[in-house]
C-alpha cells in the first residue's frame, strides 16, 4: 500500500455500512472504520514528513519503524486488512481452494483451525490482534500481536485478522469477546484471504 500524493488514505469499504449486521452493525462501522481508523491514518500522515519513511510503502514502514510512527502505521495496515476481508453474513461460511487445503494441511481441519484461532484471540491479554499468516514456504501460522503488532515484523505474510481491541466489538457485543470472535466467521470473505495467500510471492 503506497501513499498517494504523499499521504495515505483509507480504502473505500466494499460493502454498505449496514451490510455486516448483525455481526458488526452500522454504528460499529461508523465509529470503528469512520473514526478510530481515520485517526490512525491522520496521525500517520502527520508523522511522515521529514522522517526516513516518507514515500515508503505502508508495509515497509510497519516492518521497520518504531514508536508512534510504527503504532499508527501498524494500525493503518491492520485496519485496512481487517475491513477489506468482510462481506455480508452467510451461514456455513468456509474457505475454498488453496487456502482451504493449506488450513486442512497445517491445522488438521477448518474446525480445528477455528477453535485455535478463537482461543488465541480470546486469550490475548489487553488490546491487539490475532492473525493467520504464511511463512516463506507457505506454511500457515496463528500469532497473537499486542497493540498495533503485525506479522510482517516477523517476516510473515498476513492473510486474515480479527481485531480484539475493545472498540472493535463493544458496541455490538459489549464485553463478550469470545462471542464476537465466533460470529466473525460468518462475514469473512474467503476469496480475499485466498487472493492474499496466492499473492504472497
Keywords:
minor pseudopilin epsh fold, 2 domains, 201 residues, 3 strands, mainly alpha, Helix Hairpins, 46% helix, 10% strand
Secondary-structure map with pairings?
Blueprint: H1 26-47, H2 58-64, H3 67-83, H4 97-107, H5 110-123, E1 128-134, E2 140-146, E3 157-163, H6 170-173, H7 177-184, H8 190-198
Helix pairs in contact: 1-3, 2-3, 4-8, 5-7
Oligomer: single chain
Helical run tally: 8
CATH class of the largest domain: Alpha Beta
Strand line-up in the sheet with most strands: 2-1-3
- Content of β-strand: 5-15%
The average pLDDT score comes to 97
Q: In CATH, what is the homologous superfamily of the largest domain?
A: Iron/manganese superoxide dismutase, C-terminal domain
N- and C-termini, Cα separation: 15 Å
Q: What fold name goes in the CATH topology slot of the largest domain?
A: minor pseudopilin epsh fold
Radius of gyration from the alpha-carbon trace, in angstroms: 16 Å
